[in-house]
Amino acid sequence: MTISVTQLNNYIHGVFDIDGVLNDISVCGEVTNVKSSRDGWYFSLKDENSAIDCFCYASATQPEVGKMVVAEGKINYWTKSGRVSFFVRRLTVSRNDGAAYLQFLQLKEKLQKEGLFDEVRKRPLPVFCRKIGVVTSATGAVIHDIENVIHRRQPFTDILLYPVKVQGVGADLEIAQGVNYFSSCDVDVVIVGRGGGSNEDLSAFNSECVVRAVAQCKKPVVSAVGHGVDFTLCDFAADKRAVTPTEAGEFVTVDSSAVINAIQQRLLRASNVVEKQLSESKNRTEYSLQRISSVLKLNLHENVAKVKGSIARQNACVQSAWQRENLQMQNVLSRLSAANPANVLKRGYAYVRSEKGRVYSASQVTEGQKLTVTFGDGSAETIVTKVNNET
């Protein structure tokens, strides 16, 4: 008899549905690969030889990686994918943790006591990294993600890859060797990373040799192992932890376009400030000039008024002085005119001269003496016939 895949899956699903053991079963195992979702948690239960995928709702006990638990529920068979999963209704933590998780905790405690995880020993990342060393797989998506983000944000950066296995036997030794190599190389920073995976996949980054290499590296180290929910001891020892390889690339670069934009914005703000200051200075200067001009005009008007007033007063004084002097001069002229011999002669007086000169008195003449008598309109020659002296 030949049947289709769907018929086969439906048949198996029916067998699972009627099987009493599979519909109500308790399974003991170690929790691994926990992933959260909107409805609950996806995880795996494993023992030394096998593992099974599980799901439980958020209302159940939250599964923790490495814990030994007893899961109660039913086995589901998904007809579309032919996949078996364990739907967990109840989760009880066992008294004994998983062996791998215990080893993880013991190593973490040991290294923590040695100070390898202390925040005080962590170094800041360089502001500008020109050479970046990367320890990861040469074929995985991690190196491509790192290269893409670095070349996009900071195109002038050199990326040096030290290719390693990131899981499996010997992976931890290769990773430690890569970190040690870059410790003595001419690089500014080192990125150690891989993509997400199960606890077993990430176990190389919990290895003591890797943690010590990261802690002892002479260059700042960025750990980019797994995704945001994954934590390894390498993360604790590194100077900086990135939740993804892409974020690691962002940590060690500056966005050149953002820097250019920031510079342009600063220049624009500076230009605006200078322009504003120049405008304010111009306004203050113009205002000062207007005030000075107003003051000068006011002072000029006042001074002109003062000068005009002074000139008017001087003119008045000069006029008054001129009138006064003119009056005095007229008086003098009048007196001079009155004292003018010609005018005196015109009033009937005469001017007498002898051969000896002016005659002022009758005592100066004698009878028979010739005299010249000058009148206002002429003169006459006369001879003295008689002298009358009044005593």
Give an overview of the whole structure.
With 391 residues, the chain is an alpha/beta fold. 45% of the residues lie in helices and 23% in strands. The protein has a five-stranded mixed barrel with strand order 1-2-3-5-4. Strands 7-6-8-9-10 form a five-stranded parallel sheet, with helices on both faces. It has a four-stranded antiparallel sheet with strand order 12-11-13-14.
What distance lies between the first and last C-alpha atoms, to the nearest angstrom? 207 Å
Q: What oligomeric state do the depicted chains represent?
A: single chain
Structural class: alpha/beta
Low-pLDDT residue spans: none
Subcellular location: Cytoplasm
Domain OB-fold nucleic acid binding: 3-91
Main location: cytoplasm
EC number: 3.1.11.6
Describe this structure in a few short sentences:
The protein is of the alpha/beta class and 391 residues long. The protein contains eleven helices and 14 strands.
Summary tags:
391 residues, alpha/beta, Rossmann fold, 4 domains, five-stranded mixed β-barrel, rod-shaped
Secondary structure elements and pairings:
Layout: H1 5-18, H2 20-23, E1 25-36, E2 40-46, E3 51-57, E4 68-78, E5 83-93, H3 99-113, E6 131-136, H4 141-153, E7 158-163, H5 171-183, E8 189-194, H6 199-202, H7 208-216, E9 221-225, H8 233-237, E10 240-241, H9 245-251, H10 256-339, H11 341-346, E11 351-354, E12 357-358, E13 370-375, E14 378-383
Helix pairs in contact: 4-9, 5-7
Keywords: Cytoplasm, Exonuclease, Hydrolase, Nuclease
Domain Exonuclease VII large subunit C-terminal: 116-295
Domain OB-fold nucleic acid binding: 3-91
